[in-house]
Amino acid sequence: MLSLLFLAYMLGFADRVIFGLVMKPIKAAYLLTDSELGLLAGIAFAASYAVFSPVGAFIVDRLPRRLVLPSAVAFWSVATAGTALAPSFWWLFVARAGVGVGEALLHPLAVSLLSDTYGPERRARAFGVYLGAGALGIMLINLLGGGLLAHIGREPISFPFGSLEPWQTLFLAAGVLGLALALLSLVMLRDLGDGDGHKTLVHAHDGGVAAYIASHPAVSAAILIGVPFLTMGGYTLNLWVIPFFERVHGWAAGTAGLSIALTCNAAAVVGCLLVGRFASGFRERVGTNAPFLLAAFGGVVFVACSSTALLVPSETASLGMLMVAFFWTFFTPVCGYTAIAEVVPRQLRARITGLLTLATGLITNSLGPYLAGVLTDRLFPATDGLRYSIAVTVIGSGLIGIVLLLSGLRGYGRVVRLQQAHEDAAPLQSAG
Q1: 385 CB contacts (<8 Å, ≥6 apart)?
Q2: The whole model's pTM is what?
């Protein structure tokens, strides 16, 4: 189960990162501005991802879970392949939106399944492995895609059905791999239970999400708003880091992709694999507040290192500081999903995750990339202006997220104790 979720998230994240790798040829092919690039990289994908995420949570709660994963992967893979063949800006927009619709089902499904499968002491590691797929997907696309672009240059590639530009080939290949994974998951999950007991609980608690949020406003705000703002800087940086090295330091796209893959993306993968150990250590030292504290601490380190990397004149120092920053990129989302598993009742987890996905789509994936593009066009139009646009985005979003997480600390421990007491009492009530 974890292996399939890992592969699905790796491929889904790779679909997003390809766009950042090939922004330059797409901009040239469609004569786009940086604002339009920001729309495609951010809002086109993220608005559909956000709007459809509550529907995705509804689907996860009510349909056979063995069918949700292959259907979602197949849908976004077709849309990814469609990106390669889009004849205009608006067809590109529709294709990127289709990717968002398909991927909106993945996180609610993963949180539901992993929370049911792993106990509290293993959840952070399970979520770390799952989200590590995103870091690995970024690394592989930058490594393989950057290597491909460096090797073939700008010449079209011939296929039996015609010729495609190198950037189109990357999208088409990702789409084909996704369809293969959808078929594999359909076969491997054929014996997975449908979660009927889970669906019964959901039907018995309709309307519970609003009541839960109203009962725990500070904790809910930290999870549903603080986590997306704190991850906004990392997502924006992931999308714009290659254009940053192209414009500010004069690197070629292929060289930038390879360098980022072997340093920054590799560091992010290592961070995901170690986040479980960090979480265990924090829990031993600070108790139940560990997820919020670890997320805030990682956010401080990420903001400090990434903003420094963007502003230093040395490309070597910039790459080194980014490597440290990327190590902490996925700590916040891992801690966010761990928090959901700890403080949200089982029957509400998919829907709360759907709301987090909605907020992530609107804040992390839409606002961040678009804001960086708009700031570059309007406030920092110089050749190296992108560095300041990204820095402003990273620092501003990071501060908002850190404040919200720290504001939720007092209520977090109390909600954890209430949830544990409720779960301990449930078997006794059933027995009675």
Answers
A1: 375, 376, 379
A2: 0.76
